[in-house]
Amino acid sequence: MFSNRLLRNRVSAQQARERKKVYVNDLEARAKELQDKNAILEERISTLINENTMLRKVLMNARPKVDDSNEQKQEHLSKS
């Protein structure tokens, strides 16, 4: 009876260790997935920041031309 209980206890402990191992492996796999996804998203953010900066510069360079053009139109309309 004692050895039977001991055997069941050992089997139960082994099963618990296996469940824990599977659980930890799943967590590690999930962590790796999230790290990979995070790296992709960080790269995308960097790309979008660079694009945004470039577009702002283009816009700033275009604004004086638009302002000059509007002034010329206003002057032309004033003369008419």
Structure explained in plain terms:
The structure is a single chain. The relative contact order is 0.04. The chain has one helix spanning 2-79. With 80 residues, the protein is mainly α. It has one domain (1-80).
Please outline what is shown here:
The chain is mainly alpha-helical.
Mean pLDDT: 90
Total separate domains: 1
Number of helices: 1
Query: What structural category do the secondary elements indicate?
Result: mainly alpha
Helical coverage, percent range: over 70%
* Uncertain regions spanning at least 5 consecutive residues: none
Cα radius of gyration in angstroms: 34 Å
What sequence of helices (H) and strands (E) makes up the elements?
A: H
- Per the principal axes of the C-alpha atoms, what is the gross shape? rod-shaped
Strand content: under 5%
- The total of beta strands comes to 0
The separation of the N and C termini measures 114 Å
Name the descriptors:
about 80 residues, mainly alpha, about 0% strand
